[in-house]
């Protein structure tokens, strides 16, 4: 992830946001979101705990997500169901699950932007 490229381990583990999130914690959370929404909810699988952490975990979850997405159409209904009823009723097919994931990723990418600026003052990082 370009927004955190060049940060050392101490910075990646430093909480600078009022929420207490660290950059590494946000990245792992995004990996958890990929796993939860596409493996657990959409595919109905019950994945075990992470085999890796940090960037490796996030990349692995994205790789698995890509495979799940490639094997389905956007109107495919999920096999599983989210435990929270409002979210379950809003994520009734792959398209809506992906929209939710885009929203989640965008929200936390903004958090990462703010954290990076607070850590070392750098802004405007990442792909355009």
From TrEMBL:
This is DinB family protein. Pfam families: MST (PF04978). It comes from Cryptosporangium japonicum. It comes from the Bacteria. InterPro entries: DinB/YfiT-like, MST-like.
């Amino acid at each position: 992830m370009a927004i955190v490229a060049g940060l050392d381990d101490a910075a990646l583990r430093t909480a600078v946001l009022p929420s207490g999130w660290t950059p590494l914690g946000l990245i792992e959370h995004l990996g958890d979101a990929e796993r939860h929404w596409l493996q657990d909810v959409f595919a109905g699988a019950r994945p075990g705990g992470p085999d890796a952490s940090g960037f490796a975990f996030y990349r692995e979850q994205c790789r698995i997500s890509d495979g799940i997405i490639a094997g389905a159409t956007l109107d495919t209904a999920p096999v599983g169901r989210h435990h929270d009823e409002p979210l379950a009723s809003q994520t009734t097919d792959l398209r809506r699950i992906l929209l939710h994931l885009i929203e989640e990723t965008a929200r936390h990418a903004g958090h990462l932007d703010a954290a990076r600026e607070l850590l070392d003052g750098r802004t405007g990082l990442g792909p355009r």
